[in-house]
Amino acid sequence: MSKLYVEGNKSLNGNVIISGSKNAALPILFMSILTEEKVKISNVPNLTDINIALKLLIYLGVKIKYNKILYIDASSINIFYAPYHLIKKIRASIWILGPLLARFGKAKIFLPGGCKIGNRPVDLHLNGLIKLGATITLKNNCIDAYVKGRLQGKYIFMKRISVGATITIMSAATLAEGFTIIDNAAREPEIVDIAKFLNTLGANIIGAGSNKIYIKGVIKLNGGTHKIIPDRIETGTFLVAAAASQGLITCHETEPKHLNSILMKLTEAGAKIKTGKDWIQLDMRGKRPKSLHIHTSPYPGFPTDMQAQFALLNSISEGIGTITETIFDNRFIYTSELINMGAKIKVQNNNTIICHGIPKLTSSNVFCSDLRASATLILAGCIAVGLTIVHRTYHLIRGYELFPDKLNQLGADIKII
Ligand code: EPZ
Predict the structure, then answer these.
(1) 390 lies in the same domain as 360
(2) Does 250 lie in the same domain as 316?
(3) I want to staple 317 with a disulfide (CB 3.0 to 4.6 A). Which of 126, 341, 342, 357 is the partner?
(4) Measured CA angle at 106 (ends 103, 108), to 5 deg
(5) 355 given a catalytic annotation
(6) Distance from residue 187's CA to the centre of ligand 1 (Å)
(7) How far is the CA of 200 from the centre of ligand 1 (A)?
(8) Which residue range is the domain that position 191 belongs to?
(9) What are the angstrom distances between the C-alpha of 209 and each of 187, 205, 300, 311?
């Protein structure tokens, strides 16, 4: 899939099944390195990032079987170095480091790649592992880590809230000697899911989801079974699809309590929202949304991964909306593509955009820059006047499973070229 032809003027209506969370599944795959026993993981989304993660595990010597459920056997890992060509493809590859170090006392990986949404340092990951007793050297973009004996539990205050670094430290601490406290920890639902998975394997983690996580190290972990939580960002993306196209969409097999900040903003935009145990329905009742003021922040605040989708909503809303991005330092690249479609967006300073809502976007040739921007530009094509061609959609399949197919089932007309 490299480009999509997207017919405009669509109202999107119907039911959609939400896939497993990319940002829970990726770290949980790497966490399976921590145990020599077999693990079984269900509800893993079929994404290119997941496939790259599996290739990395296989390279290390992990045995993988997939038949709707992912069977992972990390008993015979015999390589503690991950190759450049795989590491560079996904940011998530940094999560190899903590588990290899905790279980084998050594690991060597290149600095990871990932979306071009700004500088992606890993200093918080490395500092956390050093605090736990690792010796880490960085040479020619390669991280070389080792520890004599076991890692040692410590009190660690995160000078900045980081999802990835919280996960790295939490995973390494499961096998460290003694207690670890992660203070000012990230609180994302994905971190709660990872802690649940590790506790299923016999780890001792309490407080995940709060800003203080307590881990009592154990000698080794067992096997176990786990089901990945639903993807809250995919859910939010389909709810924005309903709001922006003035339609009615019900998202099934999702978790409403993970979307409180998103649902609050969509209600403020004028949407009628109903929720049940595992479903969320958004009814825009054919109305144009009202403009919103959005300020991204760590969970439970408004998620940065929904920033682009809400910029689209503000672009066609009544009034003037603003979006301030506080997590990444370069996450507005996609706005130039929306401006090509007629959106009136101004970048006020490097982390705030102002959107003067217009009734309709016009079709154009647009180019994706990261996975959330890709979904946003496809939605923009669905509601614009005319045929929009969306290029570089390889970004999309990194994080959205069957996105064009799911949209077509909701009344879109998207052709994959
Ligand atoms: C995770 O990235 C997600 N990726 C991102 O989702 C998400 O946007 C982000 O968390 C914030 O919620 C995955 O889970 C694979 P951070 P991560 O560490 O862990 C800085 C998507 O679209 N920082 O919370 O990389 C960093 O530069 C992706 O699915 C350091 O300075 O995010 C950023 O400004 C995009 N040093 C801020 O902290 C570090 O060592 C938050 O980053 C680590 C991060």
Answers:
(1) yes
(2) yes
(3) 357
(4) 125
(5) no
(6) 13
(7) 26
(8) 22-227
(9) 4, 11, 9, 28
